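chain below, 209 aa
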Amino acid sequence: MNLANVLTVVRLALVPLFVVVLFVEEGEDPLWRYLAVAVFVAAALTDRIDGWVARRYGLVTDFGKVADPIADKALIGAALVGLSVLGELPWWITAVIAARELGVTALRFWVIRHGVIPASRGGKAKTLAQVVAIAAFLLPLPDVLDPVRWALMALAVLLTVVTGLDYLVQALRMRAGGDGRSGGARTDGRDTGADPWGPGPGRTGPATE
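prediction:
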């Protein structure tokens, strides 16, 4: 197992630790909330690091292609569900984001024989917005900063929905044989190095969706 995959496994292992820390004292102890933020941010950073390591050293494995998206979605999902269980985030927000993430994954498999839906700047911005917004809700901030937290979450939800619709449009174009972006994939069955989830061989998992 190479370094990039080890980082992915570490991210997966941090998810249950994050959940445990988040629910200590029913999430009301400021110290434990800061610790939860630290674990969450550390886990999120491993996603950036393992991507850099993979691109730098060309470390691509089948394990990484499967485990990386699972780790990413597990971390974001655990944070959203945890905040909703604690009553700090409406369940509909968690449901919208979860539905989008699962839907995009399904779309990628749906069009896999027709082409690859490439990563977009919007998808990367969406991921960053989600991490920042979740971190803001995890932090024990004073009530006066509530408008800031909600603004960040609103931005995250907006980008989540908009980029999800963009993926849907691209998928429909590919299925219809239109001019949707193919991300460099071939439709004659020969591999160009891009995996079904990502932009190229330098990534251990999918592109940011």
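Confidence is low (pLDDT under 50) at residues 179-206. The first helix runs from residue 3 to 22.
thats it, cya
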